[in-house]
Every structure is written in C-alpha cells, then in structure tokens.
Design brief:
The complex is a heterodimer. Chain A is mainly beta. Chain A has no helices and eleven strands. The termini of chain A are far apart. The chains are: A mainly beta, B mainly beta.
C-alpha cells in the first residue's frame, strides 16, 4: 500500500458525460501527478500540481482539467467524454516538486460506452 | 519530446536465472532516470531514481546502472524468483525534473 488513495476504483459512463476522479496523496507529500494508461499506450503524463499550483503539463486534452485543493487532495475532471478516453487513470504523489520517487495510487478504471 | 525505449518487450526466464534489460533515453537535457516495478492488477512501485553518470543502485537482488552520456540504463535481477514476475518500467525526467516520460516496459515472467 503506497498511501495514495484514489476514488472511485471503477467508473462506467456514456459518451458526452463528465466525470471527476479524486486522489489523496501520501501524508506529507505536496506534489500530485496524474497519468493515463490506455490500452495501446504506455503511461502518459497528464499534469502535475505542487502545493496547490500547477507545475507541469503534459499531453492533457483541453476537455480535461485538474486542481489541487488546500488539503492537498486533487481532482481530475474529464468532460465531453469519448470512447477513446477509456483508460486507467493513475495519481501519484511525491514530497517535492522535482521528480523524486513517485508513489502511485491504485488507479481509477474509466470505461466510456 | 523525450523518447524512452525499453528492450526486450518481454522476457521468459527460469527460476534462478539472472537477467537484465535495457532502457535508452535521450542524453540531452537529462535530469533523472526512474525504474518502477508494476505487478499485474497493482500500481507501479518505485525501485530506483538515479541522477549521476555512473550511478549504480541496489535493492536486494535487483540493481541498476546509469550512463547519462550515452543515454542508457540497465536493470539487473540476480537469481530470478517467480515473485519477480512483473513489468519493469523506466522513465526519464525532463530537465525541469518534474515530468516523467515512460518507456513501454519490459514484461518479465519467471517460471518456477
């Protein structure tokens, strides 16, 4: 158990809908990262927050947004969902802003039908 | 954009065999190289983070080396055990240090 929690574990929704994925980092970690794992692709970095502020942005679609709250939990919002958004979404956390060891949560499996 | 490649894609070994696999990454603007172990139905687990050329790290039977000048890292497993069966991922951090680009992984299967 890495200490990072993600909810929900599974999510099934229809095209066009909007969902929110939630992540709580390990106690003491200030950085949160979001990754997407699609069937035919490796882990893709989406976005990083550090202590409430956005620090780095990867291949994140405009339909997706994230934020980190004062209690350091983070939410990833996915809107106007398409079939291709079906994937495993991981959240990871680390102590600092720079890429030291990252601790991954169990992931949220999103299925868009 | 960093291209991180791992080889082989998959590997079958017998229990007790030693094995190694490769991660190659662009050497320009290098910041750090990460190795993760990812068991089926679980989440990736950090093994090593290496930053210096010539760095060598060890955790039990697993060790890794780093060559930042030529852009490669090796992961070694000595005396493989069935519980070592997993996908091993490497990731290179950009020069700001915060964005990881992952390779496709090497899937290791150890037969008892």
């Amino acid at each position: 158990d890495s200490g990072v929690t993600q909810t929900p574990k599974h999510l099934i929704t229809a095209t066009g809908q909007r969902v929110t994925l939630r992540c709580s980092p390990r106690s003491g970690d200030l950085s949160v990262y979001w990754y997407q794992q699609s069937l035919d692709q490796g882990l893709q970095f989406l976005i990083q927050y550090y202590n409430g502020e956005e620090r780095a942005k990867g291949n994140i679609l405009e339909r997706f947004s994230a934020q980190q709250f004062p209690d350091l939990h983070s939410e990833l919002n996915l809107s106007s969902l398409e079939l291709g958004d079906s994937a495993l979404y991981f959240c990871a956390s680390s102590v600092e802003a720079l890429a030291g060891e990252q601790y991954f949560g169990p992931g949220t499996r999103l299925t868009v039908t | 954009i960093l291209n991180v490649e791992q080889s082989p894609q998959s590997l079958h070994v017998q229990e007790g065999d030693s094995t190694n696999f490769t991660c190659s990454f662009p050497s320009s603007n290098f910041y750090a190289l990460h190795w993760y172990r990812w068991e089926t139905a679980k989440s990736p687990e950090a093994l090593f983070v290496m930053t210096l050329n010539g760095d060598e790290k060890k955790k039990g039977r697993i060790s890794a080396t780093l060559n930042t000048k030529e852009g490669y890292s090796y992961l070694y497993i000595k005396g493989s055990q069935p519980e070592d069966s997993a996908t091993y991922l490497c990731a290179s951090a950009n020069n700001a240090g915060n964005m990881l680009t992952f390779g496709g992984g090497t899937r290791l299967m150890v037969k008892p």
